[in-house]
Amino acid sequence: MRRLYEPTHPLPWPERRAQCRGPWEVPFARLEWYLEWLAWGLGNWALLEVLEYLSTFSVLVAVLFYFAGSGDRTRQRHYAAWAVINSAQGKGGSGGRIEALEELNRDRVPLIGLDGSMAFLQGVQLSNAMLSRCSFQAADLRQSSLRSSDLSFCNLRSANFRNADFEHAQLGDADLTEADLTGADLGSANLARADFSSADLRSADLSEVRWKEIASMRLANIFGVRNAPDGFVQFALAHGAVAAQSDDEWTALQNAAKR
Predict the structure, then answer these.
(1) How far is residue 253 CA from its own chain's centroid?
(2) Contact (CB, 8 A) for 181 and 200
(3) Which end of the chain has the smaller Cβ count within 10 Å, N or C?
């Protein structure tokens, strides 16, 4: 047994009694003397030493089992997160999906094919997420971070991405028809074969965006786009985009195109 000190052999009772300063102290001294003998006897009992070693060993075993089961606990967390996401498919509101998606993404779980249609995911942080072929149709992702995420082949129709961060994102072949990208950061994003028909790109940041293979800009609103690469505005207008400051003006241009 690990000892802070080695127990000393108690004095014989006559010697211990002689140390008492008066008769009133004798009962207390007698009790303490008995306890000293008990402590000395237990201190030399091998069974207690064995038990203490076993308690230390049990702590070690518990630690080993804890780390051995960490994989199972991680899987359980992932199952719970997916249950939250799947149970809320097609429903409005968050329903805990923001936290569930962020947790899965932190653990680098692929979110390919995710259905987040009509979900309220404002401010969700999904940088570097694997989201190809997902659907965020009509979802609210204002001020969200999708920096460096893979959104290729995604259905993003009518989604609200106001002031969202798409810097370095992969948006190849994505459907952004009627998406609201007002003030969004699309810096260095890959827009190859993306469909921006009737999308709102007012005040969007297009710094170093890869735009030359965009599939459609028909009736997209590019008023006030920032840091547009050379030739982008001319390309967009030549392919049916408009530059309308107000919603009324833009709506009038859309109605006129339908006639």
Answers:
(1) 42
(2) yes
(3) C
Q: For residue 52, what pLDDT is reported?
A: 66
- pLDDT score for 54: 64
Cα–Cα–Cα angle for 174, 165, 225, rounded to 5 degrees: 80
Identify the residue whose tokens are 């993306």: 194
Q: Is the pLDDT of residue 40 over 60?
A: yes
The pTM of the whole model exceeds 0.90: no
CA distances from 159 to 42, 124, 127, 182, 228 (A): 74, 14, 18, 11, 22
Q: Are 205 and 185 in contact (CB under 8 A)?
A: yes
List, as one string, the DSSP characters of the chain: ---SSPPPPPPPHHHHHHT-SSGGGHHHHHHHHHHHHHHHHHHT-HHHHHHHHHHHHHHHHHHHHHHHTHHHHHHHHHHHHHHHHHHTTT-SS-TTHHHHHHHHHHTT---TT-B-TT-B-TT-B-TT-B-TT-B-TT-B-TT-B-TT-B-TT-B-TT-B-TT-B-TT-B-TT-B-TT-B-TT-B-TT-B-TT-B-TT-B-TT-B-TT-B-TT-SB-TT-B-TT-BSPPTTHHHHHHHTT-B--SSHHHHHHHHHHHH-
| Cα torsion through 233, 202, 133, 76, rounded to 10 | 140
Rounded CA gap, 93 and 101, in Å?
A: 14
Could you give phi then psi for residue 43, rounded to 5 degrees? Answer: -65, -20
Closest CA to 138 of 126, 150, 121, 113: 121
Query: How far is residue 174's CA from residue 193's CA, in Å, rounded to a whole number?
Result: 7
Give me 159's structure tokens. Answer: 């989604």
